[in-house]
Amino acid sequence: xxxxxxxxxxxxxxxxxxxxxxxxxxxxxxxxxxxxxxxxxxxxxxxxxxxxxxxxxxxxxxxxxxxxxxxxxxxxxxxxxxxxxxxxxxxxxxxxxxxxxxxxxxxxxxxxxxxxxxxxxxxxxxxxxxxxxxxxxxxxxxxxxxxxxxxxxxxxxxxxxxxxxxxxxxxxxxxxxxxxxxxxxxxxxxxxxxxxxxxxxxxxxxxxxxxxxxxxxxxxxxxxxxxxxxxxxxxxxxxxxxxxxxxxxxxxxxxxxxxxxxxxxxxxxxxxxxxxxxxxxxxxxxxxxxxxxxxxxxxxxxxxxxxxxxxxxxxxxxxxxxxxxxxxxxxxxxxxxxxxxxxxxxxxxxxxxxxxxxxxxxxxxxxxxxxxxxxxxxxxxxxxxxxxxxxxxxxxxxxxxxxxxxxxxxxxxxxxxxxxxxxxxxxxxxxxxxxxxxxxxxxxxxxxxxxxxxxxxxxxxxxxxxxxxxxxxxxxxxxxxxxxxxxxxxxxxxxxxxxxxxxxxxxxxxxxxxxxxxxxxxxxxxxxxxxxxxxxxxxxxxxxxxxxxxxxxxxxxxxxxxxxxxxxxxxxxxxxxxxxxxxxxxxxxxxxxxxxxxxxxxxxxxxxxxxxxxxxxxxxxxxxxxxxxxxxxxxxxxxxxxxxxxxxxxxxxxxxxxxxxxxxxxxxxxxxxxxxxxxxxxxxxxxxxxxxxxxxxxxxxxxxxxxxxxxxxxxxxxxxxxxxxxxxxxxxxxxxxxxxxxxxxxx
Length: 747
Description:
This protein is of the alpha+beta class. Helices cover 61% and strands 7% of the residues. The protein has helices at 2-14, 16-36, 51-62, 88-102, 141-155, 177-193, 196-224, 228-258, 263-290, 298-329, 338-343, 366-376, 378-393, 414-426, 446-458, 491-511, 520-554, 558-583, 603-631, 636-663, 671-703, 712-717, 740-746, and strands spanning 72-78, 107-110, 125-132, 160-164, 401-402, 434-439, 463-466, 470-471, 477-484, 514-515, 599-600. Strands 6, 7, 8, 9 and 10 form a five-stranded antiparallel sheet that branches. The protein has a four-stranded antiparallel sheet with strand order 2-3-1-4, sandwiched between helices. It starts with a helix and ends with a helix.
């Protein structure tokens, strides 16, 4: 591996014009494809194998034209204090609003509150349901403007009028925080690499990689039915890993120059060593993201595959375009130390034989000091790290899962006001109605059976209302709307759904009718259960594959095991932080969380996948340098110090960059993106600075030589990928007959 990548690095350095041209051409091609592609939709949401999805499919089949997946809006009216919605003047305002709403060409149906008895018992609140023919992302601005104007006109009649529903949903925006995150990354790069040119390379390559990835996703969004969050996730992860991967190679290049190597040779060795770590780190991220397919939720699978593709592009760019740009930069990128600058990386300078042979005083940095401290007190450091992460993980014990609705919107929004008015007038369960399609094809008397179903459901504990059955044109399918007593995201509503399904199973035995429950609330419940059921198999698959990969990389059994256990600690601590902020409201104002609520159902399994891949990045980058020193003859403790001396500064910078990039997405208007950005930023913080910088060296110090133990039979069976660059020792330092100075002068 190291030898092959060494050749790739040198080839890219020499043929930099050709390499740069290829990547610019790919970026242009992807950009043209994105510009000419049709506008993407919201992306379909389905949960194969669940009752809610089966019921939804039945609705689409038996009630054609009902716009089952269309956008909806609930226009809620409230009369002034002391008056009711049954007053003639208020009735006129409502009916005028209903008429205006129905004039929109994208509207499939509008209900009249007085015809459908959608007036509260007190008479103070009424609502009109608007159903559109298209989903919220395909809804035209003209339709949204017409909805808003109708609401404003109705308010002039003295009524309180608010509107909720997904018809108001718009494309999420991330705000200026994302740009601030990139700016912080740039500052960190300048400090770490010591020059604007060197700092600019990782940023440039990361932006090119993300540009290609996002443009490709945009070009294929309509064809592959990709949701709006797919590109945001790919940008978030692609930008973070793209900067980090390039940073590691540029940093290693400067270290090779510091050893006195000629520039082309330094580029080759940087790609051969740090590039090998990049390949395996990227593979762990790709495995974790593609592994999301195990959950069998198409939207999640597409998000994972799209993000994995962007990571793969980041790896390829780091291995090829970075050495090409290093060739363009020439002497503008200096060696890491003053000694290297005196040598200047000139051709013919002899490389140092062993970094560990240098006097300790000449290379004492913070990484070295910290490693020596850990080696002296490994037990204390280990206990502090584990207890700290354990304390942060405690809130995860009260994790409540769900999907966000208008109930978590800020209190000053019309969506939240409409949500609260409906709860006030019709009860908290009214915001999450259950839809019960009943297939009556196998029954003798469909109407009688449907009536029996309504009566049975009405008797279920927690059900406050079950509407009379409405039939399709064929008369073989009934539709029943059910209102629970509790708010949609509560565990009590979940029990109601299960009780209705249990009652439906008994009715099926008795009458042969197939009774199913769907709707947004039932769909959320099924999503949570499906994700919970898939978590352990997903963990086993992803951690198992990555464990095997790390055994090959480190030629050790205990190091990969320690890496996996450390990851579990960091992801639990990160979930605890997410619960504390988004569910409990701790420091919520600081992160723009105005209303608390359940944690997004996909969050645990999504964080497991993404955080595992990113956590292995730092494990590979930091520990491979230790492995490299150990293989070259250093004692275990000395190898730990060497790994930190060379890697701690860069790993710290990479972690700060990744945290800054992820934190930039906390400013998103989309609750899902905000939560993901916060969760990933905190997870990287915990994993990089507590697990990899504290727990890892402490455990390795306690294990000593045993850390690198591998059974002989397994050693013979595993392929030798040579991540530590052992195969490069026999290669010469000369770049060949090419005169470097003349070559640079021609550029």
